[in-house]
Amino acid sequence: MIKRTGSVAKVRQQVKEWKKQGLTVGLVPTMGYLHEGHKSLIDRAVKENGRVVVSIFVNPIQFAPNEDLESYPRDIEKDTELCTNAGASLIFNPTPEEMYPNGFSTNVVMNNLTKELCGKTRPTHFGGVCTVVSKLFNIVAADRAYFGEKDAQQLAIIKRMVADLNFDIEIKGCPIVREADGLAKSSRNTYLSAEERQAALVLSKSIALGKKMVEDGERNAQTVIDAMTKCISAEPLAKIDYVSVVDALSITPIDEYEGYVLTAIAVYIGKTRLIDNFIVDIDTL
User: Please, how many CA atoms are within 13 Å of residue 117, restricted to the half-sphere of its CB?
Assistant: First the structure.
């Protein structure tokens, strides 16, 4: 039976025991309400490591006051079942008080990669992400950590943070997992009504459109942005947060598709904010 604990000390003790046995440790950081996308991360971690820790923590400091911290879906028993079936060894499910005890006053802030995309409309978000991920890396002391490529900006930021702060951990990005109709899997999809769920397909449709344009030879970023924007705007329930083309490593806007490029979108369907993206390496097309 999989172990589950909310104690930092117990996680550290368990990982030390595993490492004494010569086992490698993988970490899958999540906010819970796990789906097939999370399972794909756990599956890969299980394949590549002797033991796997899944953290389940709805991190309060990455939510702005007007965001969905209280309503964010939670189901620890269902999550435990998924982790068990996927072969994970330990669930770390701390309380906010365990992670941020009274007097907590240290934060990890990144200056550059957080300015564009989600960082524009969620200016405090990535400070919260960097802080909690740094803590998880220090608590679990894993050899590898696994993140989904759907959160492409987050993945780039974490890779940069690991390089900048000399964390002794390997970061693995894992492909986007989609529903049969193309919608990228997300815990927030549960917010959508039946009508909104259908409308949300405009995200993956616009992503497919932009990707095909680039694969067919289009290199002007604004041309792709305009076409994707037109596609999304045709859906009455969709409200665009951003459609952007950036360098995939530095997250800085670019005018032409050259090198390693991230095309990312954030769209509100009703009150629910969803993201999607595609990455292309122009040199390999």
Answer: 30
For tokens 């999989």, name the residue: 2
Collapsing DSSP to helix, strand or coil, 240 comes out as: strand
The active-site residue out of 38, 39, 51, 122 is 38
Digitized pLDDT (tens) for each residue of the chain, 285 residues in all: 899 999 999 999 999 999 999 999 999 999 999 999 999 999 999 999 999 999 999 999 999 999 999 999 999 999 999 999 999 999 999 999 999 999 999 999 998 999 999 999 999 999 999 999 999 999 999 999 999 999 999 999 999 999 999 999 999 999 999 999 999 999 999 999 999 999 999 999 999 999 999 999 999 999 999 999 999 999 999 999 999 999 999 999 999 999 999 999 999 999 999 999 999 999 999
Q: Is 38 a catalytic residue?
A: yes
Q: Using a cut of 0.85, tell me whether the model's pTM lies above it.
A: yes
- The structure tokens listed for 227 are 């076409």
**CA 114/CA 118 separation, integer angstroms:** 8
